[in-house]
Amino acid sequence: MKIAVCVKQVPDSWAEKKMVNGVLDREGVDAVLNDLDEYAVEEALRIVEAHGGNEEGGANSVTIVSMGPERATEAIRKALSMGANDAILVSDVALAGSDALATSKVLAEVIKNGGFDLVICGTESTDARMSVVPAMLAQRLGWAQLTFASIVSVDPAANTVSITRTTEAGVDAINAKLPAVVSVVEKINEPRYPSFKGIMAAKKKTIDSRDLASVGVSAESAWSLVADSAPRPPRAAGVKVTDEGNGGNDLVKFLTEKKFI
Amino acid sequence: MSQIFILADFAGDKSTKTTAELATAAARNGSVTAIVLAAPGAGAILAATVKHGPIANVLVVESADFATHGVAAAADAISQIIAQKSPSAILIASHAYGKEVAGRVAVATDSGIITDAVDVAADLTATQLVFGGSTTVHSKVSNGVPIITVRPNSIEADLSDSSPAVENLSLTISDAAKLATTTSSTPPVKGGRPELTEAQVVVSGGRGTNGDFSAVEGFADSLGAAVGASRAATDAGWYPHSHQVGQTGKTVSPQLYVACGISGAIQHRAGMQTSKTIAVVNKDPEAPIFDLADFGVVGDLFAVLPQATQGVTAQKS
Lengths: 261, 317
Description:
- By secondary structure, chain A is of the alpha/beta class.
- In chain A, 28% of the residues lie in helices and 31% in strands.
- In chain A, helix 2 (73-82) packs across helix 5 (196-204) and helix 3 crosses helix 4 (133-141).
- Chain B folds into 2 domains: 3-177, 3-Layer(aba) Sandwich (Rossmann fold); 196-316, TPP-binding domain (Rossmann fold), CATH 3.40.50.1220.
- A 9-stranded mixed β-sheet of chain B has the order 9-8-7-10-6-1-4-5-11, sandwiched between helices. A 5-stranded parallel β-sheet of chain B has the order 14-13-15-16-17. Chain B has a two-stranded antiparallel ribbon with strand order 2-3.
């Protein structure tokens, strides 16, 4: 079983973000592995561990696939230190400011030529939050789409994958033949912390850095253009009262004035 | 006048208010056709509920594949409709299903996509609130048929009645859209409370509840509100993860948001700061959440909320 896990390096979700020239300013903020991708890495590792492990030279492996600036190797190392075998990073100045369409195109091309059985993604990145790349990947690859999984099980003998899809629309049981694209929701598992041994081992693992020409796709400019962007004005200061036995009634009075009751 | 499409949104057999919101935004650009994807024989029942003000036409496609093959089958049908009818754009609800359908349609039709719009102008310029609502962005699709997903509860819907013309369209879903099969579906467990992202009022609890959400739920129920939770509360296992409001959870934008025992880290603010009115109950007068509050009570939520619940109940009776 060869699994590809798509990850993205994003600005730390605790940091303030801003726009410069119509795109997110990624230079001025701490960059980390997208929180939600850690669940995807963990799930991939659990799948291969349940089916014989991912020792070097074995039949199973977990490959991290990412698109981003050279600096994204930091986030990739984190995924490698959790236990993934190796990584592919597509990095090219022509990709700066890419949208989900371009990202899915590049990732699909890398995955198509990598001999993978399964792709696992997080449900979204915490920066753009579009939540569309896994669906786009499935469409581009012509593979089955099993997204928003809260449970994943793979049967290598039958060459199938089954998931429990959990969204606001309810819970669905979905299955498909491999190859397939799976996205996993937060809380599907508890991602492991990299061990010291894992961190040391990750330093020696291969990150195959590729540009667009070696991937074999051309860059396209984003198909949605930002006309303008502006920070929203801060909210006007409100009223603050201290509860001295009447705080609940004060709140009701405010809600009544605002016609919520 | 150009023709613009929306994908009608349903809860069970009934068209939702979200459908009316999509139609209201779409009507600024052109004559609105609502697409109804239905199980065989169910089209007429669903279509009969799609009669919100600005909708001029309803286009019904029936296929068993929509239930069995989910997002992929819906996207395949919509892509075929776009190829046949060349609308000026298509507007879809911005929830998990809607965004995935939109993503696949964008790839299949070589079109640009904008998600999570809170407004769409006549020229199809979309307004988005990004980075947790701290920044407003205006953008426009520059290629193909614009695919725009619109966040529920963002647009004031025209809820007047209309009697749109209903047309049936027969399509064959392609085999490439049938690779994943849904074997069972369970609708969400409906408590008495509204759905978080569509609720007009949301009452949320955080670390300050210490795991006891009874006061938060009691107040929410008195207001007919949905219940939310901060990441601290869901991580601690105090409340289901599906109720998490914040950067890694749901983004809500209700008329009223009441944050109880929540400090207001960026993580949480990102999911709620576009709420129209914000009220706060917190013991710590220095909690950053007070910066967002239209009305704040410095106090213990276990004292303030029961009193407020009683007050609301008394006023309603």
